[in-house]
Amino acid sequence: MLKNIWEKIFGTKSEHDIKKLTPLIEEINSREAEIQKLSDGQLSQKTAEFRQRLKNGQTLEDILPEAFAVVREASRRTIGLRHFDVQLIGGIVLHQGKIAEMLTGEGKTLVAVLPAYLNALAGSSVHIVTVNDYLAKRDRYWMGPIYEFLGLKVGLIQQSMNTSERQSAYQSDVVYVTNNEIGFDYLRDNMVVDKSERVLRSLDYAIVDEVDSILIDEARTPLIISGPAEEYTNKYSIINRLVPQLRGRKITESEEIQAKYTGTDLSKGYDYLVDEKNHSVMLTDEGIKKCERLLGLKSLYDDVSGEWVHHITQAIRAHELFHRDTHYVVKDGQVIIVDEFTGRLMPGRRWSDGLHQAIEAKEHLKIAEENQTLATITFQNFFRMYKKLSGMTGTAMTEAPEFWQIYKLDVVAIPPNKPLIRQDWPDVIYRTEREKINAIIREIDELYRRGQPVLVGTRSIEKSEKLSSILRQKGIPHQVLNAKYHEQEAQIIAQAGRKGSVTIATNMAGRGTDIVLGGNPPDPENARIVKELGGLHILGTERHEARRIDNQLRGRSGRQGDPGSSRFYLSLEDELMRLFGSERISNLMLKMGMTEGEEIQHPWISRAIENAQK
């Protein structure tokens, strides 16, 4: 509260940071006319001149204004894009080793070229890190002509590359690479017998795109290189057949508190308890006895390692907490994990501690052998090894304290080039999932008939396909974008802004691709019609535990001053509402005498939901 009053009177920290950069922006702009007079040859020769000036004792700060002016002009001549002033600010913030929060559509990809070029002049290895191979390749070939015009070598790392191709790419001045690829390359480099087999140069400077996804969401994700271990896999199948014979109970936080208060034994009559909120499972005394009887064991604890108990609880977790087409998909006889934050498939990743094998047994697939870890590192520990680290994202302010605490990274909110005019409507809440889905279908139908494009955000593949099935029955044409169809991602997203388009997407639509009003390639007449209809409407079908993910979905609309709108539809049966005290809201709805299909909108409820989110 006091912080909000302080910021209203004195302005935010970001506003102060940007104010300090104004003289630098004016200096870059003052050089533009002079730089524009240079021939192509003279402009590209500037790189050699800058390098010589650095050798003569000048610093990167000394040459920054002229270097940024040179990159801006090279960009205009090669790819037809000229950096706005706010993009120059973003470039300076990145060079300073901070995080630039820039709204969707503000050109983060173009911004990264400025500090990448400047730092490469000093001989630093510059790594521009993206979330997937598709974006790394797209950005390398889109921005590549700027670097090449100025005489720099640009590299690209893709999953399919061999050692010699990687060595060659990493020798480049600027390298586009995914967080997974560079992390695994680092691990492999530490396992080689001979130094000549290493691929990485050094960890000098990283610009991390979608920095919140990589440094916060995946921070503690371990990258693991493993080898086979001797393991008896038959026990997973044995235990999998045992689980359906056990009786379980899901418990909520309020039930647990109530039980402690009244002295009630929640485990009575049940073999195991499931705590959905904490993603944990506990065998009861009755359950232990039943498992011993079914397995023909004297005691589950005869094995000192507690292996039987561990495998039984993992099998129960596989059945109760991990659901097909939500947490994983089955493709070509394999269990492939779905990233809960991006909605993307993660081939090659496996859950550890026997959980992956338990899910394979549940799905009646061939059970892979357990592996032993040969080398491992988390993204958090890997990226902290860079001499200089910076990042870009559309949503970082909600995580600013964590960025500072873990990485000592400041977050600076860069103002948009044009004011944001998107209308964010309050959430609407229904008592049941069925009522909510009916309201969503009505809203989609209404928007489709009007011709206003709509992007419908869902939290899982299963939910997106369920919604798609209902729309098909209603005869509403639409596109589905989820981890199963990620190959068509670019084409689907490119057309999501066309008149009358309906696009259903999981979280993966929130990253990396701009939605152009009127469709792609851009058409001024179609864009004008869509703008008059209100622009792109975002329809969220559920709240995510991380508020930032919801903000990313909203951020698909209203790019570059375009009109747009957003609204989230919720029900008391949604996961977030169910796990975080929907009973109070449910009681309130009953007291208000709400009938079937009636909705509720109230600032108190919106605040309660935000408090439940991280």
Describe this structure in words.
- The chain is α/β, with parallel strands linked by helices and 614 residues long.
- The chain has 3 domains: 251 residues, P-loop containing nucleotide triphosphate hydrolases (Rossmann fold, 3-Layer(aba) Sandwich); 136 residues, Alpha-Beta Complex (Pre-protein croslinking domain of SecA), CATH 3.90.1440.10; 190 residues, P-loop containing nucleotide triphosphate hydrolases (Rossmann fold, 3-Layer(aba) Sandwich), CATH 3.40.50.
- The chain is built from 27 helices and 22 strands.
- β11 and β12 form a beta hairpin.
Write the layout of secondary structure elements.
Layout: H1 2-10, H2 13-30, H3 32-36, H4 40-44, H5 46-55, H6 60-79, H7 85-95, E1 99-101, H8 108-120, E2 126-130, H9 133-149, E3 154-156, H10 163-170, E4 174-178, H11 179-189, E5 205-209, H12 211-217, E6 222-228, H13 234-242, E7 248-251, H14 253-262, E8 272-275, E9 280-283, H15 285-295, H16 307-320, E10 328-331, E11 334-338, E12 345-346, H17 355-362, E13 371-378, H18 379-383, E14 388-393, H19 400-407, E15 411-413, E16 423-424, E17 428-430, H20 433-450, E18 454-457, H21 461-474, E19 479-481, H22 489-494, E20 502-505, H23 524-532, E21 536-540, H24 547-554, E22 564-571, H25 575-579, H26 582-591, H27 603-612
Helix pairs in contact: 2-6, 2-7, 5-6, 6-8, 6-9, 7-8, 8-9, 13-16, 16-17
In brief, what are we looking at here?
By secondary structure, the protein is α/β, with parallel strands linked by helices. Helices cover 45% and strands 16% of the residues. The protein folds into three domains: 2-225 and 387-413, P-loop containing nucleotide triphosphate hydrolases (Rossmann fold, 3-Layer(aba) Sandwich), CATH 3.40.50.300; 234-369, SecA, preprotein cross-linking domain (Pre-protein croslinking domain of SecA, Alpha-Beta Complex); 423-612, 3-Layer(aba) Sandwich (Rossmann fold), CATH 3.40.50.300.
